[in-house]
Amino acid sequence: MSQWDGAVRLKGLRRFGIAITVLNVLGHTVLGFEQSWAQPLVSLATTYSLELLLEWSEARAQGRAPRYQGGARRLVDFLLPAHISGLAVAMLLYANERLWPVAFASAAAIGSKALLRVNVQGKARHFLNPSNAGITVTLLLFPWVGIAPPYQFTEGLHGPGDWILPAIIVCTGSFVNYRFTQRLPLIAGWLGGFVLQAALRSWFRATPLPVALVPMSGTAFVLYTFYMVTDPATTPQRRWAQVVFGASVAAAYGLLVGRHVVFDLFFSLSLVCAGRGAGLFVQQWLAQRAGRREVAVAVAGTPPT
């Protein structure tokens, strides 16, 4: 399985960036997005500026050249993650006409990448899904901020259009996740786990199974499945671990729904990402402890027991 790095990462990010840009433009012109044009623009301005500032600061502290230097193309490629996170936050949050909650969520998304990192295979990597983390923090801190209504993705469509748009998202998302991110096992674990938790809730609470499966019929759920939960930078690489990760998100969702918690999709992903990050921290600590012990034994000149 190819690693999400180098040329593969760049190709995947470009396609993600194009897809979410097209969706936002269509959303504000055709589909029925209820946010103003100012909100994605403010979100992008926030993510761009903060990403550049943090990279400049880190490069200066490490005595190296910033990664965005080297021409316009290099700058655009560097800003692709910030572009994706900014548009995702602006598309999914709803704060009426207010702009600062969107800017706050965007800043939290980029800030989580810089502040919350763990060593993975010798590299410091963030473990929280940036846009999902920014949305989660904003929803927790400001209860009057909500999620954009799911119907906005197809409000301006009629007849076959209600089916064509989700079908396009499924096809393009499947291609990107198969060809570049290699996250189809994660999608399978998430969808299978979602059906299982729905069946269990239906069994124990004596509710109709179709009611528990209704979220799967929405365009928002399709977007979440193919473009949110599959973030390759914050999910496992191995196939079996991907399945466990996806199933864990579904299990967390089922538990939150059972406790009547709103915004379950976003909170469940944040919980699982945070749990994975905690596990990586423990692994890192154990490895460092084992390394120190080996050094101590070598200095003492006695064989390890």
Beta percentage is under 5%
Low-confidence stretches: none
Number of helices: 11
Using the CA coordinates, give the radius of gyration: 21 Å
Secondary structure: helix percent: over 70%
What strand line-up does the widest sheet have?
Answer: 1-4
Cα shape = globular
Sketch the topology as an H/E string, one letter per element: HHHEHEEHEHHHHHH
Structural class estimated from helices and strands: mainly alpha
Distance between the termini: 37 Å
Whole-number mean pLDDT: 91
How would a crystallographer describe the biggest sheet? 2 strands, antiparallel
Would you report the number of β strands?
A: 4
Give an overview of the whole structure.
- It is a single chain.
- This protein is mostly helical.
- 70% of the residues lie in helices and 4% in strands.
- The chain contains 11 helices and 4 strands; from the N terminus they run H-H-H-E-H-E-E-H-E-H-H-H-H-H-H.
- The strands form 2 sheets. A two-stranded antiparallel sheet has the order 1-4. A two-stranded antiparallel ribbon has the order 2-3.
- Strand 2 (117-120) and strand 3 form a beta hairpin.
Quick tags:
305 residues, mainly alpha, two-stranded antiparallel ribbon, 4 strands
Which helices and strands appear, and what pairs or packs with what?
Blueprint: H1 6-31, H2 38-62, H3 72-92, E1 93-94, H4 100-115, E2 117-120, E3 123-126, H5 130-141, E4 146-147, H6 161-181, H7 184-205, H8 209-213, H9 219-227, H10 239-258, H11 264-300
Antiparallel strand pairs: 1-4, 2-3
